Amino acid sequence: MLRKIGYALAVLVAAVVPVVALVALPAWVIVAGLVLLAAWLAFTRTGHQTWSATAVAITTIPQRLGSSSVVVIGIAGVVGVLVALLAMAEGFRSTLQQTGSDDTAIVLRAGSQTEINSVVSHDAVVTVAQEPQVMHDVKGLPIASPEISVAASIPKKGKTTDANVQIRGVGEQAWELYPRLRIIAGRRFTPGLRELIVGKNAAREFAHTALGSKLNLNGQPWTVVGEFDAGDSHDSELWADTNVVATTYHRGDSTSSVTVRLQSAKLFDAFKTAIKTDPRLKLDTQTTRTYYNAQSAQLTKTLKILGTTVALIMAFGAVFGALNTMYAAIATRTREIATLRAIGFRGAPVVVSVLIETLLLAIAGGVVGAGIAWVLFDNYTASTLGANFSQVVFEFRVTPALLAAGLKWALAIGFLGGLFPALRAARMPVTDGLREL
Amino acid sequence: MSPLVEIRNLSKVYVRGKQKLEVLHHVNLDIAQGDFLALMGPSGSGKTTLLNLIGGLDSPTEGTLTVAGQRIDRLGQSDLARWRAGHVGFVFQFYNLLPMLSAAKNVELPLLLTKLPAAKRRSHAAVALELVGLADRAAHKPGELSGGQQQRVAIARAIVSDPTLLVCDEPTGDLDRQSAVEVLTLLQRLNRDHGKTIVMVTHDPKAAEYATHTLHLDKGTLVETAEAPAQAAS
Amino acid sequence: MKYFNLVWSALFRRKSRTLFTLLSVLAAFLLFGLLDSVRTAFANAGHSVAGASRLITISKVSFTLELPKSLYMKIQTVPGVAEATYANWFGGIYQDPKNFFANEAVPSNFFDLYPEFHLSADELRDFQQTRTGAVVGASLAKRFHWKIGDQIPLQATIFPQKNGSNTWTFNLVGIYHVANPSERQQEDALFFHWQYFDEARAFGNGKVGWYIEKIGDPKDADRVAQAIDAIAANSDHETKTQSEDAFQASFVSQFADIGLIVGSIMGAVFFTLILLTGNTMAQAVRERIPELAILKTIGFSNRSVLAMVLAESVLLLAIGGAVGLALAELVVSIIRARLGAVPMLPVGVEIWLQGLGLMALIGLLVGVLPARRGMRLRIVDALAGR
Question: Is C253 in Cβ contact with A84 (below 8 Å)?
Fold first, then answer.
């Protein structure tokens, strides 16, 4: 009785510890582990035995193709779904993270979480721009852009429904403020005119955004004169002169926000304090990195939880699928395994060979799943409603880290699915196995 | 009175690829009601094929086969199945019980095909088990019974629906001497006391001694034998 | 039914294999229940039976722009409009931005247009008579342990008060219930007085976020909507009127194509499941060929052998699936009780029916090949071990 409990506990530890290690350890440790395993197989006596036993098992896989493919496809499903959902989170996160930086700051009305809820008066804009921490351009003007964000409902390409696009009115210093932004077609808008430049993602998603097209905003015709690539979430927006946007939307001389470039990122705290302590201003200050990260936090977190939960439940199912397959595999190979034992193979090589076989199938599944996710979803374009009630276009990003995470999951599932059948194989009495028909 | 089983000019040809294999060759045979017939012959002589035809498991290539006045040689698969359910009980060399079901449930199986209510099915099965002397093993699974016991359960299953004909294929082939005797005695008792008509294939002359007649098959034809050991046991 | 015992015992012939397969099926249907709960939550977002007879009028430019209140009188006179009301999005935060829930400023007659929000006559009267009164849905009250008489402070994100304060405090005077479980998400909201809101806010006074019209005959919807939009045509505040359902649907569809995401995951899950249980069934039938041959020998027809194998695989799916769905129902109810405003609907009759349909379908699908193999086996060959 005690021995039984002890055995059960030992098996439990043997199952849980490696799985936790697989998930927790960085990828290079696991790769190193696999290399060591390969070395053991190649250079030691027991390793040789194990490899021979594994080789025998592998040669019989084609006879068990149907049930072996269950392991591969089951694990491919888990890994594919996991990688796809995490790639979506990663894409959205990196798009918004790239948008912000540490040396630009966005100033909003106190309490407003987003630009669209915020109002900043003209006087406040002037005061903020004159803070000493703000960088000045070659002409000596402060690099500050009073901006207006409006969500406009315009038709999507190829669809009858409208969706919200973010119109951003920017100040004259915007080109200094956003140095990464490149005009990839046409030209910049002319201040004072109803001219728009469209982000490359907005141009792809929305109708009437080609160069020279007319777009109706609040009853007034606007002309698209350029297309830009900022490499971040601004690519989902339409930009125009902030004063003209204010007139069109009856904003008077107030704006939604003011964004400034600081002389250095280190001066942010001083800048923030200066604004906070100015009794005339009721404004909140954050770096644009903080601001845009906060916007992606919720969706990214939701997607990660969703992806992990779905993958965990699928993995639960896949482990039992693998168990079924591997138990069946050792059942059909009972005589073979018993023969190996009878001619002098020891228990350990047999256990390890069953495990290795399962892990190989699992790796195949992981590669197939991650590969499918990569082929289907890397750079797949999706859009969602961002914090400003307008569409943010982003691309799924299947990063090497995600592929590695997928493979780790595959190994963990394969390990659990192979361990118990391996133990059964090792404990099988030789004589029973030989008698088995 | 016409015989229970009337076989006329019965042939069976198997086609394996391009080869034609004539397993039975124009066999004529009558089996009377109440007979206990042993079919003997070397392997490949066609005895199991003949038994399968009589039991309605297979259809002949040529000839007629009448059982209890009904032609079964041209019945389709589903009609044959229905006919077997009503008329034939089978006993095999390897017992062929369902391992997941208790002895009682195994015996009850054929009754599932009748309209009997559940309580009647159970009591019939109990009677049949009683008859083979295994009433106390009703709840046991086949794995918990000895070979001889399993075969007796199989016999109980074969007789539970009171079939016209009992068909046995090497019923003692897998049993030790002692169990074989028990099983054969049981068959003999069913034949004598209950009037069951039995056709049994065997290659064991000792087993054949329990039958009322013995016929020999060789290369697909019945051969008349001088010693005719069929009456020896009576 | 008398074959049930036979099917059941066949299913548990190999206990561990059946158990593992059941657990895989369970996992698949647990996922199905959870994801479908999310999907229906999005599909039914704001959807209600009563919503069919309501129109929503928003600014044509963008629903974030407000409309002049002067439209109210004109909208009420449009033929076909039985009653009209309006609302403003307040966007207040309770304690932490994570505690998100809808909060809107509405006039006294708002609840007349929303009969699905059940509020007692006394509570309704208190709401109408209390200037700083607010009502909340039952789920929301439960989530924050609010009871009638509580003071609820909200931090404004859009509308500071005239006195410069960003904190608005409301007196909880009523708790409304939504009877239909699939519409119960709408209990995650707080409503307070428009009059108070408009008088106290620092800017935007005299403007409303959107209008809601109840129409006499839903078939009239298009005509009435056009008539309402004609009022402000060619002004600087053009409107767009659509049915409440259409409005909600367009809003949700901008979030993400939830149907596509859920559909893709379920596709992957069920594809894997079919393969997995199909393999189990094939194994199960393969090793039972002699037993099936016996059944046929005894006189079981081809059709009943086919039916028994199919019944076995459907039973396998149904047991695992039912436990999985029941588990999903439990998990969803726990999540909803703990976290409140999650986009998950209770696992109700609709999801169960869909789930049962899927179990039957997948059961038949994975059973059909093994079942045909069992049905077609030749007794003579099977008994001879061929």
Answer: no
ipTM, 2 decimals? Answer: 0.82
Residues 6+ apart with CB under 8 A from A31: none
Query: If you search the block for the tokens 């349909």, which residue do you land on?
Result: C357
For C384, which residue in chain B has the nearest alpha carbon? Answer: B48
Nearest residue of C to residue B112, measured between CA atoms? C2
What is the model's pLDDT at position B232? 39
Touch A-B: 3+ C-beta pairs under 8 A: no
Top residue of A314, A330, A388 to mutate, by most chain C CBs within 10 Å, is A314
Name the residue with higher pLDDT: A158 or C181. A158
Please state, in angstroms and as integers, the Cα–Cα distance from residue A295 to each residue in A40, A116, A257, A397, A408, following that order: 50, 13, 16, 18, 30
Q: Output the average pLDDT for chain A.
A: 86
Pick the residue from chain B with its C-alpha nearest to C298. Answer: B85
Give tens-digit pLDDT for C328-366: 999 988 887 776 656 788 888 889 999 999 999 999 998
The single-letter code of the amino acid at C87 is A
pLDDT at B197: 92
- As given in the structure block, the two tokens for residue C194 are 């428009």
Which of A62-71, A365-374, B80-89, B149-158 is the least confident region?
A62-71
Q: How confident is the model at residue B198 (pLDDT cuts 50, 70, 90)?
A: very high
Contact A70 C279 (CB under 8 A): yes
List of E strands, A296-416: 381-385, 391-395
Question: Residue C282 is nearest to which of A66, A150, A314, comparing CB atoms?
Answer: A66
Candidates C254, C287, C342: best to mutate against A (most CBs of A within 10 A) is: C254
